Input
Amino acid sequence: KLGFIPTAIAVIEVVMSVAETEADLRGILGSAQGLSVQKSRPQLDKHSRQFIAMSPFLTLATANAKGRADVSPRGDPPGFVHVVDDKTILIPDRPGNNRLDTMVNIVENPNVACLFFIPGFEDTLRLAGRAKITHDGELLKHCMVNGKAPKVGVLISIEEVFLHCAKALKRSKLWQDDYMQDRSMMPSIARIILEQTCESGVDENVASEADTSVEDNYRNELY
Output
């Protein structure tokens, strides 16, 4: 029985070390000061507009009515996000797998946040607001690519926008070759999913067909 005592003590220590309130966090990490607070804006300005116009990629965070969170990547040629005005942006939704995690979340809970990236920039742009799903043809025609307009888009009413400092991208060296990995270090996405879902093992013919299907979809179904 004595062998269980260290484990019990360890569990107690972990529980006691958890910060449960903002006051706990501030006591450990301190308060935001100066420009880190002042930089938050309620709408776009010329700099955030330019950042969005140069960005080919963003992540879109949502949560459902119960608070379960999700984050989705969105990408297209630079400027794919349409700036409607200083308080509103439109993110086109391109053909996908129809899981609709992001959009179902928005229908249940309109609070969203975005993180915009520009290759070569180590700063990012953070934006938060309230979203709705639109299928308005007049709006969506601004997001046309290869002559094809999206069926729907995510229309965000901006509540906060600001630039995020470069520390995370400097640490990760995201735009440098230092941590660049050879994709062959892991199986293809199709094979991974088959291995995760086929208890009896992966049939090589099925895996090959799945790889071909995925690549064909990438070539022909981006828009």
The chain has a mean pLDDT of 92.
